[in-house]
Amino acid sequence: MKKFLAVLLSVLMLASFATAMASEPIVIDELSVVFVPSASVEEMLSASEPMKAMLQAELAKSGYDVKNVTVDVGTDYAVVGEGMISGTVDVGFLPALTYALYSEDGVKVILTSTRAGHNVDSDDFNAWNIVVENDPSIIAGGYRSLIYVNALTEKGADLLAKAEAGTLTWDDVNSAKWALGNPGSGASYTYPSIWLNKNFGEGVGEAKKTVESLEFATFGGGYPDNQETVLLGQADIYAGFADTRTNDYAQPAFAAAYPEEAAAGKTVFDALKVIGVTDLIMNDTISVGNADFITPEFIAALQQAFLNIIQTDEGKATVKPYSHTGYVIVQDADFDGARAALKIFE
What we know:
346 residues; 20% strand; single chain; D-Maltodextrin-Binding Protein, domain 2; seven-stranded mixed β-sheet
């Protein structure tokens, strides 16, 4: 009897210990969150600062005690992707194509963003040469990249006139100075390449044409920098997502370049006109890297954390520079189309 009671007591003690252990939070010393530089770095860092405490609070609900959350903006898309592979970046806000590029090395997608759609959605560039506004009633799962020119310059006006007349040629776009992003950028590198190839390359029976085929292209700039370069007349064309004219940096950049026109009531929409529209690009992702603590259980907790955060006004403000309005859970297979787009460079 005593032996039975001793065994029973031991079992109860083990069960009690296991229960206590189960209630103990899982400690994570540091969680690094890094954005790609598709918006102003200063704006992004300022907006995302409250995300640190929000993530700590939300993950605590799922039993994770995260001692420190860091939020940063990578110098370019590749730096963020490489950091996720090496383990220096745990959570990356990656465009679809950047995710597709690095998914082969173990980066995993956990969410994709939704955003407010626009009052126009068309593959006809003429439809975009109005004041494009966000429509919160339209939830968009993807977006367009637009090919912009400064119609207030001689070269930009010429390119726009030829596009409107349907006479734009490869020689026209190849003689222009382009301001573009890094290879990981869908909106300012890959999808503009698809547009070039469709309109001036293999789509019309010629040799393949990509942004790398352009004679006067510079790479590596973020959207604000590339837009400003075109507004200042230092480049003729830039490519970017359809919100670049409505972001906070656009009108001040126009006013700095054209103070008299701005004083007369003109806006950035009077300068930056569209001559091309790319295929639909899947929205940005939230992806995770290869750290040991990133288990399926942690992924589920992180998904729920971001889903909760984005439902609040304060949470939406942390990703306002990216125009995210919500998140949905997705699968890796959803990005097979992005992988197909990458093949244009093979």
